[in-house]
């Protein structure tokens, strides 16, 4: 079965960096686009970034563009989110998620359990 | 950017009620609309995609409709397990945006 396990969250000071990882299993990782979605405490969902199955294309929300970098290592079945110049408003649970379908325009069909990032001095 | 607006923000209903949630896009997204259910402390779960296709394993009391800019999620007979927060999401043309959510509460 599809499993997505995020890690790397924690408490970090404003202006510092943090890298999140998402370990994937139970499917052919290299065949699917992957996303990061975040949820601030008590708030709604915010899409953050997507990376194509082969890493050739990446798209970002305006709120993180220029500060966050999404990447993947298909040999390690792992998705990453490098977060730089962190701000208090980046405090959230970060979920990784997989496209529902292979090579088909589709929604987020599978989600990890999330990892909490707290930006605070 | 495409904005998604859900209404209502909160909905109080009883078991057995028919419930409808509306999602409006700031521009046409054709049928590229999904609905998710989220319970406290859990990841979202996909319910419906392409506006009206029920994801595998989702009860048939859930249904979706709409196209262009107006979409609805309907729960035909609310069950105890359905009290949760629901989000719409557009995934049109290299753009992804969630609505602000609708919390379905027990009346």
Report on the structure:
The complex is a heterodimer of chains A (121) and B (107). Chain A is mainly beta and 121 residues long. Chain A is 0% helix and 50% strand. Chain A contains no helices and 11 strands. In chain A, strand 4 and strand 5 (45-51) form a beta hairpin. Chain A starts with a strand and ends with a strand. The mean pLDDT of chain A is 97. By secondary structure, chain B is mainly β. The model of chain B has no long low-confidence stretch (mean pLDDT 97). Chain B contains no helices and 11 strands. Chain B is globular. Chains A and B meet through strand 5 and strand 10 of A and strand 4, strand 5 and strand 10 of B.
From the structure above, extract its key features.
heterodimer; A: 121 residues; mainly beta; seven-stranded mixed beta sheet; four-stranded antiparallel beta sheet; 11 strands; globular; B: 107 residues
SSE layout and pairings?
The complex is a heterodimer of chains A (121) and B (107).
Chain A: E1 3-7, E2 10-12, E3 18-25, E4 34-39, E5 45-51, E6 58-60, E7 68-73, E8 78-83, E9 92-99, E10 108-111, E11 115-119
Parallel strand pairs in A: 2-11
Antiparallel strand pairs in A: 1-3, 3-8, 4-5, 4-9, 5-6, 7-8, 9-10, 9-11
Chain B: E1 4-7, E2 10-13, E3 19-25, E4 33-38, E5 45-49, E6 53-54, E7 62-67, E8 70-75, E9 85-90, E10 97-98, E11 102-106
Parallel strand pairs in B: 2-11
Antiparallel strand pairs in B: 1-3, 3-8, 4-5, 4-9, 5-6, 7-8, 9-10, 9-11
């Amino acid at each position: 079965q599809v499993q997505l396990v995020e890690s790397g969250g924690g408490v970090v000071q404003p202006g510092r960096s943090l890298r999140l990882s998402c370990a994937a299993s139970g499917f052919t990782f290299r065949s699917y686009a992957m996303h990061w979605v975040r949820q601030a405490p008590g708030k709604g969902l915010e899409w953050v970034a997507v990376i194509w199955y082969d890493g050739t294309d990446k798209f970002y929300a305006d709120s993180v563009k220029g500060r966050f970098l999404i990447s993947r290592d298909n040999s390690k079945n792992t998705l990453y989110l490098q977060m730089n110049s962190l701000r208090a408003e980046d405090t959230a649970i970060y979920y990784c998620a997989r496209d529902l379908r292979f090579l088909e325009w589709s929604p987020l069909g599978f989600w990890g359990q999330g990892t909490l990032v707290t930006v605070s001095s | 950017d495409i904005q998604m607006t859900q209404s209502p923000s909160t909905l109080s209903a009883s078991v057995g009620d028919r419930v409808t949630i509306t999602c409006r896009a700031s521009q046409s997204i054709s049928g590229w609309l999904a609905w998710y259910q989220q319970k406290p402390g859990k990841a979202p779960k996909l319910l419906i995609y392409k506006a009206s296709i029920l994801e595998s394993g989702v009860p048939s009391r859930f249904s979706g409709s709409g196209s262009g800019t107006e979409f609805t999620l309907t729960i035909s007979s609310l069950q105890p397990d359905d009290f949760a927060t629901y989000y719409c999401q557009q995934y049109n043309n290299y753009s992804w945006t969630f609505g602000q959510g609708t919390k379905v509460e027990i009346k």
